[in-house]
Amino acid sequence: MNVAIVVAGGKGVRFGGDRPKQFLELRGTPIIIHTLRQFERCREIEKLIVVLPAEETAGFVSLAAEFDLKKISRVVAGGETRARSVRNGLESIDDAEVVAVHDCKAARDAGRNRPGGARGANERRRDFGVAD
């Protein structure tokens, strides 16, 4: 089984505002939902684990249902760091052959600090059928 962990555990402190940026709306839909829809369309990914700030996990199940997201198997509380959030996601997996880890970040950050930049990220995403 192939599992994707979508890491969206940040609180958006530097960004400001009342909610983490992954819950801000783009064309009437939260950014995180746009991300998760791409994985819903991906045949190679069978289950999704979503890592969120602890205070957002309870309400997220109903938000996901509202947008008819069916692959979400778990919603997990993030940690103090990105590494801890990824670890929390990994520890929640029962069984998997392949695990993909995806950062749910602002679009402007997509190519920063990643080998190959935005182009490389898109090539890697294409391998899983997720690229735009």
What do you see in this structure?
The chain has four helices and six strands. It has helices at 31-41, 57-66, 82-91, 117-127, and strands at 2-7, 25-26, 29-30, 47-52, 72-77, 98-103. Strands 5-4-1-6 form a four-stranded parallel beta sheet, sandwiched between helices.
Which class best fits the helix and strand makeup?
alpha/beta
Report the β-strand fraction as a percent range.
Answer: 15-25%
Instruction: Flag low-confidence runs.
Output: 106-122
CATH topological fold name? Spore Coat Polysaccharide Biosynthesis Protein SpsA, Chain A
The CATH class turns out to be: Alpha Beta
Helix count?
A: 4
Task: Tell me the Rg in angstroms.
Answer: 14 Å
The coarse overall form would be globular
Give the helices and strands as they follow along the chain.
Answer: EEEHEHEHEH
Total strands: the figure is: 6
Q: Could you give me the name of the CATH homologous superfamily?
A: Spore Coat Polysaccharide Biosynthesis Protein SpsA, Chain A
Numbering strands along the chain, what is their spatial order in the largest sheet? 5-4-1-6
CATH architecture: Alpha-Beta Complex
Distance between the termini: 23 Å
Q: Number of folding domains?
A: 1
Instruction: Give the integer mean of the pLDDT values.
Output: 79
